[in-house]
Amino acid sequence: MIDHLGFSVSDYERAKAFYAKALAPLDYSLIMEVTAEQTGHAAAAGFGAGGKPDLWFGAEGAMNKPVHIAITAKDRATVDAFYKAAMAAGGRDNGPPGIRAHYHANYYGAFVLDPDGHNIEAVCHAPE
Question: Which keywords belong to this entry (predicted)?
Fold first, then answer.
C-alpha cells in the first residue's frame, strides 16, 4: 500500500493554486507545507483528504518526464466535477470524462495535464 507520493514542479505557487482548485471536488486540499529549511532541499506542499497529506510536490523544478497520478472519486459526478474544476484552473485536456472499457466495463475516468504536463486523473470504478 502506498502511503504517499511526491514529484517536483517548475512553479511552486502556480502548482499550489492549480491543485487547490482542481482537487477540491475530490475532497483534497492543502493539508500542510514544509519549508526548504525543514526539508533540506526545497519547499513542499502536501495535499490530501481527511487531514492526511498523501500527494506531495516540491519546488525542485521541472522534471524530465511527467508523472501520472490517479485519485479515486466517489462517483462519476465527482469525476465530472474534477475535470471541470481542473480545466477552469488552467489544466489541459488529456481525456474528457467517460468510460474506458479497455480497462474494465465500469472504469470512468477523466485526465487533465497540470501546468507542468503531469497527467492527473480522477477515476470511479463503481457502476453508474
Answer: Dioxygenase, Lyase, Oxidoreductase
pLDDT in tens, 27-65: 999 999 999 999 888 999 999 999 999 999 999 998 899
Q: How many CB atoms lie within 10 A of CB 76?
A: 21
Domains annotated for the chain, with CATH where assigned, are: 5-124 (3.10.180.10)
Q: pLDDT, tens digit, for every residue of 80-117?
A: 999 999 999 999 999 999 999 999 999 999 999 999 99
* DSSP secondary structure of 103-114: T-TT-EEEEEE-
Angle at which helices 12-22 and 76-88 cross, to 10°: 150
CA distances from 29 to 3, 62, 98, 102, 118 (A): 17, 22, 25, 31, 18
Please state whether the predicted TM-score (pTM) of the whole model is above 0.85: yes
Task: Please list, in sequence order, all residues whose beta carbon lies within 8 angstroms of the beta carbon of residue 112, skipping any fewer than 6 positions away.
Answer: 22, 82, 83, 86, 87, 91, 92, 93, 94, 119, 120, 121
DSSP state of 26: G
